[in-house]
Amino acid sequence: MTTDIGDQLGEAGRSGLRARKKLATREALSRAALRLALERGLQNVRVDDIAAEAGVSPRTYNNYFSSREEAICFLSVQRAQRIGAALRARPPEEPLAEAIGHAMAEEYAGRSEPDKVTMRMFISEPALRGEYLKGLTAVEGPLAEAIAARTGTDPERDLFPRVLAAAVTSAARTATRHYLRTETTAPFAAVVRDAIELIAPAARAHEGRRA
Amino acid sequence: MTTDIGDQLGEAGRSGLRARKKLATREALSRAALRLALERGLQNVRVDDIAAEAGVSPRTYNNYFSSREEAICFLSVQRAQRIGAALRARPPEEPLAEAIGHAMAEEYAGRSEPDKVTMRMFISEPALRGEYLKGLTAVEGPLAEAIAARTGTDPERDLFPRVLAAAVTSAARTATRHYLRTETTAPFAAVVRDAIELIAPAARAHEGRRA
DNA sequence: CCGGAAGTTGCGCGACACGCATAATTTCGT
DNA sequence: ACGAAATTATGCGTGTCGCGCAACTTCCGG
Question: Tens digits of per-residue pLDDT, A53-64?
Fold first, then answer.
């Protein structure tokens, strides 16, 4: 078993029962870690508790995650990466902002709004914020590819795709912080859309320059 | 003694000898930590080594930093925060991109280019990347204020200042990654400027909307 | 159905963050 | 300039933690 971060999503990629069980265990561990952290606070969560909650040995827990933070954030990172993948799957003709909206709607379809308490913890707890930010940057790669596919630019040579991708994830992060303000009642997707719209002129300007 | 993160820069702010010694110790510890990490690799740096290198007891080291990563990144975070402060000190009439250029030139005046090996370590080592990203987001606050001062918008109500601030720091981060590519020979400040220029249209669009 | 691969578990070690108590040092009022 | 108060440095002990190692168990392919 490897804890290779790159395999975390591709766990169900190839073989059958084995990989599925692995992913299930990882998700169970992450769910347990998040639940306990929300219940009793990050400080009062022992590794053994997480393992027990997920029904595995503490040693096995450490085979999947090398820190509580990683365990707690995994589900959210997974969700962000799903959005990134969904985005890359949208037709390249579709405008970026619209594609992002669809990708998010796809992810949050049916389900409720994202949990504010969880997000608040991710941001306020210093130990989690680092992992949270790392997770966000992990989406920038796929996002840059999606952007490159739309603009026809090469991410290796031209700065634009990666810069815009980073700007978009940053906008999403900023939107999240704004969404968490108690006065805000607008749905999450709408706030994100507004934030992204603020940097959309950069994308349009680049299109114009390219044409 | 507190390790309050908010006091890290303001250590020399008020009182005299006491605060200055404190800051000196903190910087010495950070320098030692960074130097050792570069020499023998992050894995082979014990806390005791850092403390010994800085001439303090291991316990004292832990009074200043609660993790190796924090210690290693402190100097860089400090530098980023200085740039943020310098930016906020620029005249509000000055265009944002230009002000950023001046603030960076002010920081890197005389000194050499930033160390590529160090930056590469910050990005490649997962343990450091989280702290590195946290440091970058810490600059977003001052940056947002500088932007708000230029646009006259209120960061509490309007998304724009914070979104643009986050986009700018993201652009700087992306520029850093591009700067680290072996083929790149352009000076750091130039790459950063190019990256920021790519998102500048968003700022101009907002100005236009406001006018 | 069997042999090897992959996953799980228990044990133990090295390291680390931090609370607490004590000594050393700086600051400040007079 | 001197002594009390506040701040800081240090030593020690404790509770965790991450992970290497070596069995043991489960799963997959032929």
Answer: 999 999 999 999
| Helix A126-151 / helix A116-124 crossing angle, nearest 10 deg | 110
| H or E segment and range at residue A47 | helix A47-54
Which domains are assigned to chain B? 5-66 (1.10.10.60), 72-210 (1.10.357.10)
Query: Using the 8-state DSSP alphabet, how is residue A113 labeled?
Result: P
In chain B, the residue whose alpha carbon lies closest to the alpha carbon of A141 is B174
Give the closest nucleotide to A58 (alpha carbon vs C1').
C9
The rounded distance, in Å, linking the Cα atoms of A164 and B159 is: 18
- Single-letter amino acid, residue B133: L
User: Smallest CA–CA separation between B6 and chain A, in Å?
Assistant: 13
pLDDT digits (tens, 9 = 90+) for A121-153: 999 999 999 999 999 999 999 999 999 999 888
Helix ranges restricted to H, chain B: 17-40, 47-54, 58-64, 68-89, 96-108, 116-124, 126-151, 160-179, 188-210
Q: How far is CA B39 from the centre of its chain?
A: 22
Contact list, B200 vs chain A (CB under 8 Å): 202
> Which residues of chain B carry a pLDDT beneath 70?
1-15, 208-211
pLDDT of residue A106: 87
DSSP-derived secondary structure letter, B114: P
